[in-house]
């Protein structure tokens, strides 16, 4: 049963329920990585809005070095999203079961590397910004692109501003007073209660993940990302093994 569940969760064949559940898990991971990462590198790496705003402020104040650091973070996030798109589209053309799992596997490996080598990586510089910041931004871009591709842009795991905006829209529709004279002219304004529940759940998971990630880094440091890596590996491993078995059978058949 566990194998079937994991295959359904991250495999090629998708359902709305699987998308939502995977989105919740990845939102938890994003919240934990973002909060723990802030304690590690003093930078929130899940959203680029603040980074772009900081770049504009730094340029206006003449802090060119800080502005270039922001550019390094943006390039890293962008590269992560692009890498996810490349992996997914390549796997799709190869008809792999691990169409989405490959990106999850890459994220797991990168988080493991961050957990094991983060203290040393923080001393290294790349693109005007510490390698740890670049790595976390890359991971965030990679993950956000995974769930965006899977859900056709309906679910975001790192973009809390969008979540809160969508939640506000649904709440506005929920409390809207449909006056009787409006009924004949236009349909009632009705909230999508299922989407409302999903948005609340996603926001809650990001918050809970943030608390867990911050506590984890406070008590065990960079290694707190290792359990997150193990969680992602568990999500990805079944579709990857399915592809390995298919390739092995083809090899044995033609050997």
UniProtKB/TrEMBL annotation:
Keywords: Membrane, Transmembrane, Transmembrane helix
The organism's place on the tree of life at top rank: Bacteria
Pfam families reported for this sequence: DUF1275
Spans traversing the lipid bilayer: 21-44, 64-88, 100-121, 127-147, 198-220, 226-246
Protein name per the record: DUF1275 domain-containing protein
Annotated source species: Rugamonas apoptosis
Organism ancestry: Bacteria, Pseudomonadati, Pseudomonadota, Betaproteobacteria, Burkholderiales
């Amino acid at each position: 049963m566990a194998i079937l569940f994991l295959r359904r969760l991250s495999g090629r064949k998708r359902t709305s329920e699987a998308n939502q559940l995977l989105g919740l898990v990845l939102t938890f991971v994003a919240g934990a990585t973002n909060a723990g990462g802030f304690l590690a590198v003093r930078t929130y790496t899940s959203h680029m809005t603040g980074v772009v705003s900081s770049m504009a402020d730094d340029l206006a104040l003449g802090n060119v070095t800080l502005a270039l650091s922001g550019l390094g973070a943006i390039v890293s996030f962008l590269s992560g999203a692009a890498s996810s798109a490349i992996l997914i589209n390549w796997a799709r053309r190869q008809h792999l079961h691990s169409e989405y799992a490959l990106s999850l596997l890459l994220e797991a490996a990168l988080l493991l590397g961050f957990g094991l080598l983060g203290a040393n990586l923080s001393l290294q510089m790349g693109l005007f910004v510490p390698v740890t910041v670049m790595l976390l931004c890359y991971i965030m871009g990679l993950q956000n692109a995974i769930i965006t591709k899977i859900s056709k842009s309906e679910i975001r795991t790192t973009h809390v501003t969008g979540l809160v905006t969508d939640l506000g829209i649904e709440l506005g529709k929920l409390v809207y007073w449909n006056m009787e004279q409006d009924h004949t002219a236009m349909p009632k304004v009705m909230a999508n209660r299922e989407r409302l529940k999903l948005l609340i759940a996603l926001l809650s998971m990001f918050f809970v993940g943030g608390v867990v990630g911050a506590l984890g880094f406070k008590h065990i440091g960079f290694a707190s990302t290792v359990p997150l890596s193990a969680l992602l590996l568990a999500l990805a491993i079944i579709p990857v093994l399915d592809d390995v078995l298919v390739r092995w059978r083809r090899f044995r058949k033609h050997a």
